[in-house]
Amino acid sequence: MSTPHPELRLARFAAAALAVGFGFGGLVGIINSAQPVIHRLVALALLIALVVLHLRNCVRPVDGSRPAAWRWTIAVQALLTGVGMIWFADTWYGNSGFLAAALLLLIRPPRLAWAGFGLVVVAQFAAALPVRPSVGEALYLAVGHTAFVGIALYAVARLADLVADLRETRLALAAAEVARQRLAFGRELNDRVGASMRRLISHGEAILARPDAADARSDLDEALTMARAALNDARSVAHAQRDEDVVPRHPAADLGTVGVAALGGLAVVLMIVPTELRWAARVGLSGGESALLAVALLAFLACYLRGCLPLRDGTRPRWWPAILLAAGVLAVAPLAVFDFPVWHVAYFLPGLTLVLLRGPLRWIVSVPLICLDAVLSLWDANMGDPTVLGLVYEAVWSGERALLVFALASMAGLTARLVTARAELARAAVVHERLRFARDLHDLFGFGLSVLVLKNELARRLLGRDAGRARAELAEGVEVARQSLAELESVAVGYRSMTVDVEARTARTVLTDAGIEVTGEIAPGPLDDRTDTVLAIVLREGVTNLLRHSEARQCTLEVERTATEVRMRIANDGVAYLAETQPGMGLSSLTGRVGALGGRLRTESDGDRFTLVATVPLKPALVGRDADRVDPVPRVEPGDRRREVVAHGAHAEE
After folding, report:
1. Dihedral sign (CA 637, 642, 643, 645)
2. Which of 30, 190, 557, 589 has a Cα-to-Cα distance from 346 of 20 to 30 A?
3. pLDDT, tens digit, for every residue of 521-541?
4. Mean pLDDT of all residues in the chain?
5. For the domain 498-634+642-654, what is the CATH superfamily, name and number?
6. pLDDT at residue 625 above 70?
7. 210-219, 245-254, 394-403: which has the highest mean pLDDT?
8. Whose CA is closest to 175, among 450, 527, 498, 477?
9. CB of 398 within 8 A of CB of 372?
10. Cα dihedral sign, 71-72-76-79
């Protein structure tokens, strides 16, 4: 069984750890409650059920799918949360965040999910009003606890989904860019080379239509110029495809980067601002003190967000030491005016140090900050309960927020790097495709257009000496132009079809660029169109599923031919199954396609190694070819309109 990548393990660990940490905070609230023991036991049972349901619903598989019977589980969460709000209103406020997160993660469409989230926050505010001394206190519980817990749990789970989505769509983006380039290439061929060829054919036919071509020297001069222009256009298109810079347009993952930054920023604001405003409201600051607090809080938030949200390339800000120093100064300097309960942003510094520091220094600085309440208790300066349980609670409270910030920053940085990687992957695929365009265009037109120019030059030289032969040479030149135009159109259309050779080159390029070692030889020999297409589909889908559902580091692609059949084998070392993706694209569909040709498709699994084998019998017409398997090479023969049997089994019209 394959294991998730480190970034996915980090996301899942953060989601589970945060859920357990928030659950521990609820546990401490229940323990410290003044309610009877039996009531506290009931509250504990409700809390455990909420945490378990959250882990089941929200720490999800790689594909981000919703669990079975999720509607029933979310209904149970809603019931448990409602009971807790009513029976344990004085201690339940943070636990409502589990339901808020579940609604955001499981309900579709998003606007309905956010409406449900808001409803939970409003319900918590209403439940807190009877048991809190002021509206501000009730609002703090609804926003600073319920909303914050919901956003934090949702953010980490969704970031894990985003990582998986980006990994799974890397091939799709590359394929889309290649398809776009193919369409652009076809249009350019038609607009430039095709137009030149059609003008040349029309001009040549007009000359041949004359009864006497002896006085057509000027027309032949013009035809020769057109032929040379067509050859130059073909070369120009080939070189342009080879040399042009490739800039994929509008990578959809950029939206993910913006969304991640917004989600992280919202989580940080909900983490810091409500608790500061709550304590400030409790002591009753003067106007000047309130203004100073607001300025200090905005400055601290600016430093915090700048330090925790990485750049587009996922690296730390250039001036990160200054940012960290400024945040430290802002955490301490206002204490000259405010008491520590009013200005206690130092509790949030571990998140910043975990993100910005590296190596042992990260832990040397961060661990004491996480245990800040225990350190301050030595001087009786701590804010919380000085008991062991109280100190543990404060350490967990600070540590879970540090973990949240570290996970958000790590995932945001990873998202930025993956966006860049996807764009580079698409860029590489398009570059290889353009090189193939240039090579195939050169091979196809190098001979034909050169013959066309020579025939027109020869017709011009013979015009004054042998008009009949000049007419024959011109006619052959026009026939060459017709054949070249037909083959030109086949290039533009043929790139939309699928062949084993083309798909193998694309697959090898994409797999190599994705960091997967590719071995094996592709030697299918001549195949009929249907067999070629079906095997190309098997190859594409096998590679697609490999990239989407495996953690492979090595892949073998082999196509070999025997006297009676052709056999394709795709093996990798990172997956134990071939997942169904959508109707017509899964294993059952591939089996049906291969079976329709009289072939067979089978899979083999040995530990982490998975093998897909497709075997298709050869058509009788393709059996018994030359021993060296060298087929006739399609080329233009002036005066002969027959087309030879080529690798795809296509025949020219007689």
Report:
1. negative
2. 30
3. 988 888 888 888 889 888 877
4. 75
5. Histidine kinase-like ATPase, C-terminal domain (3.30.565.10)
6. no
7. 394-403
8. 498
9. yes
10. positive
